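Hi everyone,

Forwarding the result from last night's run.
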Amino acid sequence: MVLSEIDLLMDLLMKSKYIVAITGAGISTNAGIPDFRGPGGLYSREGIPGEKIFNLEYFKENPSLFYEAMPDLLHLFLEAKPTKGHCFLKKLEDLGKLKTVITQNIDGLHKKAGNSYTIELHGNFEKFYCLNCYQEIFEADEAYREILNNIESKKTPLCKKCGGIIKPNVVFFGEYVRDLEKALTEVQKADLLLVIGSSLTVYPAATLPSYLDDTAKLAIINQMETPYDSKAKVVLHEDIDSIAEKLKIL
């Protein structure tokens, strides 16, 4: 009997003991967070130069451009709830299958879903810091709420200690991604690498599947084709939420 792609994916999930997931924007679009590069995304909005808004050097020279665009986006991140795709990964962790989530997203939804080991390559909005004195401001701090109030008013928040520009803990163009070595190590440990909602075209995350052990399997769930489709054991060009429903693991 020839297994369907869904049955084959289920078989891989059940037989695997060390699953590592790589996730991109596609897992969060059903939470109301548009892909930055996709239709309706931040980079496609009129009047917002996408190549500059997340550029570190431009931010240092003109932080107001970033903060004028941030109120709506920050609301999306702070108010978004995990999707069925996020809950599916949490269930795989609960079953003892999923060991690590490596994400390109900055929305924090994997942590909200309860995944215990998440590598956020591009950072998050859990803290801000001063570009001058490097003082950090965390969510529990009163100063964090003041920063959010400034952003609501489209004002650039400044450090109370030295007057420097405050920046979110998000990776901009011109900065190194976070914990790449840890991500590489986890991929090398995996017996199944599960790619969800990522085109695998944004570097350096796009290189991660190439570090998979020769004996390990690759499964891809993404609505568009990826450069690794031909190397994958399973490829599903569908929405992750619909796949999660079909798998009936939740």
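The two ends are 26 Å apart (CA to CA).

Cheers,
N.
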